[in-house]
Amino acid sequence: MYRTLLVFALVFSAAISAQTHPLETLITAAREHSPQLGELIRAGLPGLAGRDGAAVWGQEFLFAVRSEEPATVSIDHGPPLVMRRVAGSPFWYPLKTLRLGTTHHYEYFAGARSLGAYDNPDSYPRAGAAQGVLSAQKTIQSRVYPGKAVDFWVYANAGVDLKNGAPLMVWQDGETIVGNADLLRLRLQIVSDNLVAKKLIPPMVHVLIAPAAGIRSVQYDTVSDRYGRHLLEEILPAVEKTYKIRKDAYSRAVAGASSGAICAMNVAWYYPGQFSRVLSHIGSYTGIQTVPDGGYLVSHRVRREARKNLRVWMSDGADDIENQAGSWPLNNIQLANSLKLKGYDFHFRFGESAHAIAQGALDLPESLVWLWRDWDAAKTEQVYEMEESERGKPLFRVKIENREAW
Predict the structure, then answer these.
(1) Do 80 and 146 fall into the same domain?
(2) C-alpha–C-alpha distance, residues 305 and 252, integer Å
């Protein structure tokens, strides 16, 4: 069962392509109760790995959830609607016509138990919000990782100041933030455009970097300055051939999920003079790589070493991974407590999610606004202080809820 849910709502124009769009194929299959519907949902809507969500084509909304029990969905806090089982599969669905141009709330249930809810207006395309521009794929040959080609893209929000220099945000696993992959997962492009239009974050240059083939974990999970050198010596100089970006750490952020999150934290930790804002989703602060150090040491370094001028948003969930490399929930809590003890400007969102981008995507509008709050184009530095609302809160504590005490 999946207790957390992210609705992947996509609104496309029929003019996108002269060919039949995969989402139109999916909606048509649902309308006709096609025998292929299960395969299409399992394929991921596309790219969702068959978990749960909603796809939108025109005004038709397809809701789909995986459940071994009969499932229902409540739309806009209405009574739960019976869902139809996809023959030969664990998926349930209805097809509904809903009004566009507004935010809809969805919640799935198995019996009386909620499987998760979604409600976030800034994750939908907003009327009047100017869209940014995504570059073509660019490729460099790395010297820091010899023999490896590295792909990246640049997404520039509308209104970005390329004359004086733009704020910068670097995203790991960049191939998941382009095209339909972004619309089905994080929706960075939609969210950032909406927040820029509302003047809640500055227009930015977003650099979306894919890991080199076969060495993602080596690049991301290794606790060293190597990836930071790769970024500063190779990727950003290539970006700056086309885009003028600001040099001050105050105007630079780095983000990632899972191994990409510890990578982001490492970049800022080793190069606080270059990056001062960190966004970490389901961070792999564990022992995936152990040479020279494993990610489990990050929290201890934060405790032992002098406080750096960083602002950090973290999120994780109680159902994250437990395996031979370590405990994702416990290590995220460790890092949050380390940041707390050292007086960092941090925020930790700890829910019930598993190791997926659902919670991070759900939080993205809030986390970006929090991370960039008070940014001023006239400034080049700021000393980050813990929020008063956090200062009075206790350390995070762990309780065992699924075993007897003794």
Answers:
(1) no
(2) 22
